[in-house]
Queue: 2 jobs
Job 1
Amino acid sequence: MRLDFTLNNHPCRAEAPAHWTVLDLLRDGLALTATKYGCGEGVCGTCTVLLDGEPVRACLVLASRLRGRTLLTAEGLEDNGQPDRLQSAFARAGAAQCGFCTPGMLLSARALLAANPSPTEHDVREALAGNLCRCTGYTKIIEAVLAAAGAR
Ligand code: FES
Ligand code: FES
């Protein structure tokens, strides 16, 4: 099937088998591998992307749902070739260890800051509750999101 949609602020035309998920299309069809395959069943959040600005699990959404819509992945976060404020804050805070969860964390955090520019720590914890991290204990991640919010 043919798919026309907006990917990371650019028009995208792609071909995909009908059974492919958004995660299949990104990684296998478009060679965009920032979006990670963790559990494959909607539990870990590492495949989180923004569809029309809302966080979704790329492993659970069929690629056919992309037609005419807007998709943002971690590859699209940079701002004129520079890390965006969340990426910069994660780097400054040391909020990534293995980095496997980081793309999903960044996108969930971006959606949070778009809806709530001045979140509390509780807001950040709630927004990231569906994103699992095996490494960091979450403290640095939460600090980074709060720092990025303060940098507005
Ligand atoms: S890979 Fe999609 S939620 Fe785990
Ligand atoms: S930094 Fe390793 S899973 Fe989060």
Note: The mean pLDDT is 96.
Job 2
Amino acid sequence: MAAEKRGFVSVDVAECKGCGLCVEACPVECLELEAGLNAYGVHPAHYTGAGCTGCGICFYDCPEPGAIEVMKIREAVHAPAHQG
Ligand code: SF4
Ligand code: SF4
């Protein structure tokens, strides 16, 4: 079984142009366009808050540098016991 890599995304609404490419591209459909408008007068993308795998597809599909950021959540790693 493949290890699950959970993540989350952060959208900078000031940079987002509301093109919706990330929404269309997300394989788990955890992005949507907000109902409200940003300073450009468009509906910015918004993370629904659950389900992101951290795959990064939205990041690579976004045409606006800095509009969307993907972060991966790593599993806690148990440190080895201190040795002498
Ligand atoms: S990183 Fe992947 S799963 Fe997460 S919001 Fe972007 S496209 Fe969707
Ligand atoms: S692809 Fe980028 S610019 Fe387009 S809606 Fe998503 S975050 Fe905004």
Note: The chain has a mean pLDDT of 90.
